[in-house]
Amino acid sequence: xxxxxxxxxxxxxxxxxxxxxxxxxxxxxxxxxxxxxxxxxxxxxxxxxxxxxxxxxxxxxxxxxxxxxxxxxxxxxxxxxxxxxxxxxxxxxxxxxxxxxxxxxxxxxxxxxxxxxxxxxxxxxxxxxxxxxxxxxxxxxxxxxxxxxxxxxxxxxxxxxxxxxxxxxxxxxxxxxxxxxxxxxxxxxxxxxxxxxxxxxxxxxxxxxxxxxxxxxxxxxxxxxxxxxxxxxxxxxxxxxxxxxxxxxxxxxxxxxxxxxxxxxxxxxxxxxxxxxxxxxxxxxxxxxxxxxxxxxxxxxxxxxxxxxxxxxxxxxxxx
Length: 320
Description:
About 2% of the residues have low confidence. By secondary structure, this protein is mostly helical. Strands 1-2 form a two-stranded antiparallel ribbon. Helix 5 runs antiparallel to helix 6 and helix 7 packs antiparallel against helix 8. Helices cover 69% and strands 2% of the residues. Strand 1 and strand 2 form a beta hairpin. It has a single domain, classed as MetI-like fold (Orthogonal Bundle), CATH 1.10.3720.
């Protein structure tokens, strides 16, 4: 009899625990998928460490020290005094990597903001309104795809960027070519995202909750920004993550050619450009450290984007 009572109590407790267990929310499901993606977690940790390196480094090391020249220490190899060595005019490469990372990430982030804004609005409006609006916007998108963005960036940087003067923001002096680089990268990279958003909105706008929202009196702006855009955030976030890596790499490539961000502003790309003349003299550190940070950043962002793609896909059972 005691054994029967004990089994009844155990079964009752297990039933109560099952009843009180709440189902996972969509956000919790995304986090579960993401945290079980080991490479994506490594990428996220790498990005956090990179941001901490740049933020804390800029607090500890003033910009004046990064731009300080000492011709007596020019082309000095890495030592305990200069961890990453010095460049051709005696500036500390470690300090310049910190401030170069600030500008490289700044360009990448703002270029992606412009890319996501244009891609979401153009692709979403084309799908939602359809008809002649869709035809015009999609033909414009196809025309933009025919323009070689890297060639356009090089041409504009050559004829406009180098003639733009310096600007002072919050007491810091920047090269005006930063704005040209951000504008061209953002304006020439939204087309693929627009197609993705258009495809998603085309499928979403036919669902019942959209019809119900319209029947309750919601206007087009409310439906678009409150229902369609939030339900397209998954592809947008993934595209933005991968677009950030592409923007940083594009900026580094153009700056390496000497056509991107100009002095006195340093980026990882123009640090590599200034190093190429001194590789034959054995100053390998001027090139190795900026290139390492470019590779590390792009690798971490791509790993993070790959994990977000799997985590935000509601049809994916991977890593559950």
